[in-house]
Design a protein that fits this description.
Elements (H helix, E strand, L loop, with lengths): L12 E4 L3 H12 L2 E6 L10 E6 L7 E5 L10 H5 L8 E4 L3 H13 L4 E8 L13 E7 L5 E6 L3 E2 L4 E3 L5 E6 L4
Parallel strand pairs: 1-4, 5-8
Antiparallel strand pairs: 2-3, 3-4, 6-7, 7-8, 9-10, 10-11
Length: 180
């Protein structure tokens, strides 16, 4: 059996949305996503729902929005967190640097979008960290359909020996990856 990892990287995410126009506007206006393609339900027989492909770089798509025209949508409720099928906890977008992260935070606040957590330094090791894990600076919001988004910067890396390394290049010797 080979030990080579067949997966190169995580690439894109597809979200079910209640209102395609509203969701396209949200991801476009707040985060600068560009619409690559938009298709009506049934354009291809095997795809009975509307799709929008959005990108934040040069790939054809980084985020896919899907809308089932035959589905009756409702808002998530607190009861959904207590009972129901497994659900995505959150997904995250990396900002290129601290300045762009701070600019996005200001933009979110200017749009009166509720910040549901943060800003927070996820770290039990770094000064100012609040004890959680991840070694990055982040805040969380909901999109129009209640999907939880994390917006972050300054993610640590893992050195060859498993040691966590801050975005500034400092090794956190007491912090080691569970697997190397």
């Amino acid at each position: 059996m080979t030990t080579e990892r067949p997966i190169q990287m995580f690439h894109h995410f597809a979200l079910d949305v209640a209102d395609m126009d509203r969701s396209i506007a949200f991801y476009r206006d707040l985060f600068g996503f560009k619409l690559t393609e938009r298709h009506k339900a049934g354009e291809v027989a095997a795809i009975p729902f509307e799709l929008a492909f959005l990108r934040c770089g040069t790939h054809h798509h980084d985020l896919v929005l899907s809308h089932n025209t035959k589905k009756t949508y409702r808002a998530r409720t607190p009861a959904d967190d207590a009972e129901g099928p497994a659900y995505i906890h959150h997904f995250a977008f990396a900002c290129k640097d601290r300045a762009s992260w701070e600019g996005l935070l200001a933009k979110i606040r200017a749009h009166d979008i509720a910040i549901i957590r943060g800003p927070v330094l996820h770290s039990p090791w770094q000064k100012g960290g609040e004890g959680s894990w991840g070694e990055n600076l982040s805040f969380y919001i909901h999109d129009p359909d209640g999907h939880r988004l994390e917006l972050f910067c300054d993610m640590a890396t893992i050195a060859a020996d498993g040691t966590f390394v801050t975005h500034e290049g400092e090794r956190i010797e007491q912090a080691k990856a569970a697997e190397i």
